[in-house]
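Objective 1b of the project was to move from sequence-level analysis to a structural picture of ligand recognition. The entry below was assembled by the postdoctoral researcher (A.K.) and checked by the PI before modelling. It contains the amino acid sequence of the target and the SMILES of the bound compound, nicotinamide-adenine-dinucleotide.
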Amino acid sequence: MSRLYKHRFKHRFFLTTDHFIHTLRSTVVGSPAKPLSDCRKHRKVFLMTENILITGGAGYVGSHTCQALAAKGFLPVCLDNLINGHQSAVQWGPFVRGDIADTSILDRIFSDYQPKAVIHFAAYAYVGESVEDPAKYYRNNVAGSISLLEAMRRNGCKNIVFSSSCATYGIPERVPIPEDHRQLPINPYGRSKLMIEQIIRDYGSAYGIRYAILRYFNAAGADPQGRIGEDHNPETHLLPILLQTVLGRRHYTEVYGTDYDTPDGTAIRDYIHVSDLASAHILSLKYLAQTAQGLCVNLGTGQGRSVTEVIQAVRQVTGKPVAYRNVGRRPGDPPSLVAKADRACSLLGWKPDIVDIREIVATAWNWHRSKEERT
Ligand SMILES: NC(=O)c1ccc[n+]([C@@H]2O[C@H](COP(=O)([O-])OP(=O)(O)OC[C@H]3O[C@@H](n4cnc5c(N)ncnc54)[C@H](O)[C@@H]3O)[C@@H](O)[C@H]2O)c1
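Corresponding predicted holo structure:
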């Protein structure tokens, strides 16, 4: 048995807080120990905290949410199999390397940390790959989520915040897209997210699981202080691809379609800063603590930006030229995906802070540049 599991939840208050955190950091699988002096600043936070299980917390949105949770006094307990995540991004709480399909790991985490809620990011999220290998997506995303929900039931954890996607809408009939828009996803990735939404609702009605379903539009940007950022491999998102091009990591960026029925002919998306996404998760936890009713909201700015506008913003922020090529439309790419975003405001009191695309680009550029300097 790993040393981690000897420190049962019921025993933790018998250790000094500093010592406990130091022990956690030095015993979780592969997590580097930090000197006690580094951990001391967490002391007050830990004593007043609630533990939250973060699946996929070593990934892009998950790690930024862990950072925001810690800043608000929660202890994010990260479960990630590192298939696409980075251990270096887990900086704000204990890390357990493992899979959401592994029932024994889940039971041990629930027993050791007794999390008040789960924020469920862990998933595969490449649309093209989901078309080529749908089984991989249904197994990991759908079956993995059922494994997690069953562990919640077994262990009496009643609250879940789930990362859903605007991909569940498919090709929209109207834009901006409201939450009650019909959901007709056009690829297995989107269908896997819709299935999980439906399963979570059924678990809500039958077993009293309280849920917040958050449908993200296009997550973008990085921690404004530059400690973590977007680091997918392969990268499929426009902004990091443009920045990799500026940094000479790619010869050019491919622009998919310049003949859409949009003002400049390129596709329009709603870019939402990752720190604003993170804050919506914290507000969702508060909502779940106060309200029995399930929540389902879009997370976007309500403003669309075309590919050309993003390229211009990258030029302005970096002061460098951006090489790109028009390569024609990709099948299944809608011309415009923009959120009707007022429900999150009215139900959660959430409002994105960073809406100027240049500001979003600046935070991403800051992180990409510092990463480049480190490597
Ligand atoms: N990034 C976006 O623009 C966006 C938009 C809409 C929805 N989402 C959803 O938000 C979530 C997070 O997205 P992201 O961009 O941070 O992705 P990401 O790939 O950076 O993070 C996902 C994390 O989950 C981990 N993971 C995957 N399968 C796992 C498993 N079976 N067990 C344990 N860990 C596992 C990966 O290692 C990774 O660290 C995903 O569910 C994604 O579908 C993202």
